[in-house]
Write a structure and sequence with these properties.
By secondary structure, this protein is an alpha+beta fold. The chain is built from six helices and five strands. Strand 4 and strand 5 form a beta hairpin. The protein is elongated. The N and C termini lie far apart (about 120 Å).
């Protein structure tokens, strides 16, 4: 016999597992999987794994307890209906892109939103995140933006002595003509 309303040990273990995953993840996305087959769920998990994310299904009541324990109460607004969580420990933008691409290919998969850090995200914000270029492209763009003023400055510094030499040469030539 169980004591009053004491939770079963297996449920406590699931809440602890989800709490740990929420604390470890840099972002968590919530999607509805109503109508997806087991093979479609498997097809969804592969690109997410490659992007550094894990897609799992848990009971909403247990996820709500875990979200509260992890300090992520904002996540609970997305937990209605048959939901799955995508825990992101890798590239957040790449994981968002993988999830949104799967949602486009499989209309039964509906993105509901999520959290990144302490920020609650809507489905639209998650799609915007998915449209960001990959991390290495962003870093290259940033490096290019830093390099551009340096290249311009180097060109100006090279032009100064060259222009001075042209000016000096013209002055010498003018002096020689005058003499």
């Amino acid at each position: 016999m169980s004591e009053g309303n004491a939770p079963r040990p297996d449920k406590v273990a699931v809440v602890e597992e989800v709490t740990a995953k929420l604390k470890e993840a840099s972002a968590v996305f919530v999607s509805e999987y109503r109508g997806l087959t087991v093979s479609q769920l498997a097809d969804l998990r592969k690109p997410l794994r490659e992007a550094g994310a894990e897609h799992k299904v848990y009971k909403n009541t247990l996820v709500k307890l875990a979200a509260t324990a992890a300090g992520m109460e904002g996540l609970t607004q997305h937990l209605t209906g048959p939901t799955a969580l995508t825990f992101v420990t890798g590239d957040v933008a790449a994981s968002a892109k993988a999830l949104t691409e799967q949602a486009k290919a499989t209309p039964a998969l509906v993105i509901k939103g999520g959290m990144m850090g302490e920020t609650v995200m809507s489905a639209d914000e998650l799609r915007i995140l998915a449209d960001l270029p990959p991390r290495d492209v962003l870093l290259a763009q940033f490096a290019g933006a830093l390099q551009a003023p340096l290249v311009k400055t180097a060109g100006l510094l090279q032009a100064l002595p060259r222009n001075f030499a042209y000016g000096l040469s013209a002055l010498v030539q003018k002096q020689e003509e005058a003499a």
